[in-house]
Amino acid sequence: MKDSFAGSFTQQEPIPDEAIAAAVAVMRSGRLHRYNLAPGEAGEVALLEQEFAAFTGARYCLAVASGGYAIATALRALGVGPGDRVLTNAFTLAPVPGAIAGLGAEPVLVETTEALVIDLDDLRRKIAASGARVLLLSHMRGHICDMEALTGLCDAAGVRVVEDCAHTMGARWNGVASGRHGAIGCYSTQTYKHLNSGEGGLLISDDAEAMARAVLLSGSYMLYDRHRAAPPPEAFERIRLEVPNISGRMDNLRAAILRVQLRSLPERCVAWNARYRVIEQGLRNLPGLRLIDRPEAEEFVGSSFQFLLPGWAPEAVRRVVAGCAARGVELKWFGAPEPVGYTSRYDSWRYCRGPELPRTDAVLAGLLDMRLPLTFSVQDCALVARIIAQEVRAAHDAAGREPAGAARG
Ligand SMILES: *Cc1c(COP(=O)(O)O)cnc(C)c1O
Asked: Which domains can be identified in the chain, with CATH numbers?
């Protein structure tokens, strides 16, 4: 009998007891709004901002209502407005182009490499062709491109970079925290990311003017002096009556549970990577399967796993997905023609106009993805890898026997 897996790919760990106690204390106080403070009280949101700034090494930090809100606010803070073009990865999730479209701006999608990162040659071409002044760089699924090459290219062209770090909180490139290479770094604390407050987001930056704008945009009124990781009051003086209030603050309840979780984030990143490496090891040297290269400079957080079945016919990929699903292993296929769950493809975002992206199409056609929640043990991951390996082998062999569906891995 074939073995199968019973774990849930969407089950995160429970909120720690200490975080629950901190949340209860906020509720007992009745002061859930970030600016509702007792005399001498800093408030959970301001403390979270201070602690997250210290964690990443950034000068300033702002906590907001969601990751998508963080991205939109970062773009607005850099002056993006209606009709502006904003470069972004074609391989990303829907809230990324959505944040651009939500400003009335126009996403310009950039090709994807086999390492699942932005294609720098295509980026260079599209900077020149589009005249865009901002790149929204998505570290999709935790894969970080050559950040020295990217920032060199963007600096030379006068393009400012907003980093979408929804999948790289806790990651580094050459020792520098992800989110610290561009002008502003954005994070999500939504349930499926590295910290869990249900919904939530964070921005970091060293740019005093941009962050003063972001604080005002988030709905600070004239209470910005209650922040502890915001620019000094001078940064607000000139702009405070010009920047619209687009309410999207974080509340003390969420911040309270995030502060406790942030303390154990480094250990949790180690736990994710132990699981990632077990899957990677289990899928090595399989016919037709290509693992994603992880560069030495990239200290990633393996909270999800991707692999490629390059050149496989769609029927053969479907056979792998169905075979794994029947045994409890949920693989998401980014090459499926219709968007399912979170696997939205760039061509299903009809509000993004633009040329075909053949390189991205070829990558997505063979791209499979799964989450690795920390509720899986290392042994669970070994079983998951064994199931995938058996199903890939079976589909590869079957395709070899059926000339029409041959897998050309
Ligand atoms: C989740 C996610 C976001 C948006 O975060 P929300 O908090 O859900 O708004 C942005 N980019 C990527 C790549 C994401 O996965």
From this structure: 17-263 (3.40.640.10), 265-399 (3.90.1150.10)
